[in-house]
Design goal:
Blueprint (H helix, E strand, L loop, with lengths): L11 H10 L10 H10 L7 E6 L4 H13 L5 E4 L11 E3 L2 E2 L2 H14 L7 H16 L3 E5 L16 E4 L7 H4 L3 H8 L8 E4 L6 H10 L2 E4 L4 E5 L3 E6 L2 E6 L5 H13 L6 H9 L8 E5 L2 E5 L4 H16 L3 E6 L7 H8 L5 E5 L9 H8 L8 E4 L2 H8 L7 E6 L2 H12 L1
Parallel strand pairs: 1-5, 1-6, 2-5, 6-7, 7-8, 13-17, 14-15, 14-17, 15-16
Antiparallel strand pairs: 2-3, 3-4, 9-10, 10-11, 12-13
Family: Belongs to the folylpolyglutamate synthase family.
GO molecular function: ATP binding; dihydrofolate synthase activity; metal ion binding; tetrahydrofolylpolyglutamate synthase activity
Keywords: ATP-binding, Folate biosynthesis, Ligase, Magnesium, Membrane, Metal-binding, Nucleotide-binding, Transmembrane, Transmembrane helix
């Protein structure tokens, strides 16, 4: 691979290596640079209708649910998500399928030819590249996941057909602030005047609705305009005249309800039978994904307090069935590790801590310092990497024990790669 300027005949790996090297910062907030390049190429005049999806957690599962429901009705759909687990190609899907490398190479080559001296970050290249691919395919709908916050994220250069906020909690505090009110205000930046704004959070900060009222967005709020309720094996959802009960899907019911409401607001809701079939077959990689049944192993990308809270509920269900739960956790250095570990601690019977050898990955020694601040009596083992931990832990599992591997997308990717070997 090279850091020299690639060409249209270069590999995708060469391009990704180059994109990582051309901007001094991994994150650079602001829309001016990205919008300038997008306008130069004509990416903002695409006929596709864009649904912009922000949120601390739940963006990926909400997008996957929307994608499934739209595809079932015959629409063409482009979906942009980040980060990826294994391959970059996961970030861009057309009609539910990943694309050949050359589509990404062509998009990056176009951007490099047209950006002039305007610097772009890796994520900004990815966002503009996805928009170029969606325009090339002339899809009916684009599902665009916001990367960080909302107001100043690269995705916010578009004019959305609708804007969605899934959940609001504390993450990336150095960029978004250290209160839910500050985070909510930033995410509400994806709202537009006179445009549907669907909010699925269960305790919506006033800053979200204040901003929505200020700009006259057409808000549809969880708990006020739509509701859902979880039961043992099902969940019910109600919005205006729509009132259904479905079997629990593999994704959080809250996100399914938000997706259903979004389509109902846009008059795009399919029949009850189609919804039921889509929810029953919905699978999202890395979200409480079962890797093995013997031994029983799950993996989850939970990396902040809110997602860890949801994971703890899923693990509590396994404990109620009589299983012991062992946790293999590895996290990034800039995450609130104590908050995450505290959320899952009550349902963990044994800890396996591991280091992450990747960008921003944290050492096992630092994770050990974090768990020392957690109220737990469970035994704790330490390993330098996820692979080493799995080598040691898997042979010791019995039929009454579940292993959950979590802590970041990198942790899940390491586990999936280990299984592929």
């Amino acid at each position: 691979m090279t850091k020299n300027l690639p060409s249209q005949s270069s590999s995708l790996d060469d391009w990704l290596c180059y994109l990582e090297s051309v901007h001094p910062a991994n994150i650079a907030m602001g829309l001016e640079r990205v919008a300038k390049v997008a306008n130069t190429i004509g990416l903002l005049n695409s006929p596709s209708k864009i649904i912009l999806i922000a949120g601390t957690n739940g963006k990926g599962t909400t997008a996957r649910c929307l994608e499934s429901l739209l595809l079932a009705q015959g629409y063409s759909v482009g979906t942009y998500a980040s980060p990826h687990l294994i391959n970059y190609n996961e970030r861009v899907r057309i009609n539910g399928a990943e694309l050949d490398n050359q589509f990404h190479v062509d998009a990056f080559d176009l951007l490099e030819q047209e950006r002039g001296d305007t610097p772009l970050t890796y994520f900004e290249y990815g966002t503009l590249g996805a928009l170029a691919i969606f325009k090339r395919h002339s899809v009916d709908y684009v599902l665009l996941e916001v990367g960080l916050g909302g107001r100043f994220d690269a995705t916010n250069i578009v004019t959305p057909f609708a804007s969605v906020i899934t959940t609001i909690d504390l993450d990336h505090k150095e960029y978004l602030g250290d209160t839910r009110e500050l985070v909510g205000y930033d995410k509400a930046g994806v709202f537009r005047t006179g445009t549907p704004a669907i909010v699925g959070d269960l305790n919506i900060p006033h800053t979200v609705t204040d901003y929505g009222h200020e700009i006259n967005a057409v808000m549809h709020l969880s708990g006020r305009d739509f509701r859902f309720k979880e039961h043992t094996q099902s969940f019910s959802w109600q919005y205006q005249a729509h009132h259904f009960e479905f079997a629990k899907p593999s994704i959080p019911c809250q996100n399914a309800a938000t997706a259903l409401t979004t389509l109902a607001v846009l008059d795009l809701l399919p029949s009850e039978a189609v919804i039921r079939n889509c929810l029953a077959n919905l699978v999202v990689e890395g979200r409480f994904q079962q890797l093995s049944s013997a031994p029983m192993v799950y993996t989850d990308v939970a990396h902040n307090a809110e997602s860890a809270r949801y994971l703890a509920q899923k693990l509590a269900g396994l404990r109620d069935q009589g299983f012991k739960v062992h946790a293999l956790v590895a996290m990034l250095a800039d995450k609130d590790k104590v908050a995450v570990l505290n959320e899952v601690s009550p349902v963990i019977d044994a800890w396996c801590l591991a280091g992450l050898n990747c960008f921003r990955g944290d050492k096992v020694e630092n994770l050990a310092k974090s768990i020392a601040a957690v109220d737990t009596d469970a035994p704790i083992a330490h390993y330098q990497t996820v692979d080493i931990a799995l080598d040691c832990v898997l042979p010791e599992l019995d039929d009454e024990t579940v292993l959950i591997i979590f802590g970041s997308f990198f942790t899940v990717a390491a586990a999936i790669n280990y299984w592929k070997k």
